[in-house]
Design a protein that fits this description.
The chain is of the alpha/beta class. Helices cover 27% and strands 18% of the residues.
Length: 148
Amino acid sequence: MFLALNDLASLFSAKQGIQDNMLFHTVADQANTDQPKGLFIPINDAGELLDAIANGAIAAIWDRETKLPSYTPTYFPVFFADDLAEAIRDIIKIYSKKLDGETNKHMQITNFKFSNKKLLNKNKQTYDIAVILEKLTNMLPADTERRG
């Protein structure tokens, strides 16, 4: 079961682009990361949106205070958040609830690729997010990183 665009629509009221039935195979915080059917969330020096799109991003979560690049396709789904780290925590929480009780060894799930997992642990209340993320990562089949 993959994270869906509709899942994000329930979290973020400010959005632009198409709001279609999309499924995300990857959620990444770095533009240069291979992210097939990916959701790009640029945290810190994440790179350019154009690079994320070239690497497979099909939507993005964007900081409300940061201007969206002019080259962004009008149909490209973008959700706006006040705090990107908080947005990631909310996405992981909602996705974890979506998977609760639904997982099995053969089910495909969204692959979360974060370069700085410590960022998600700003305080003790969010420690559980890192634990959930670790569980999600461990649920991925061993061959998900294989290329070719």
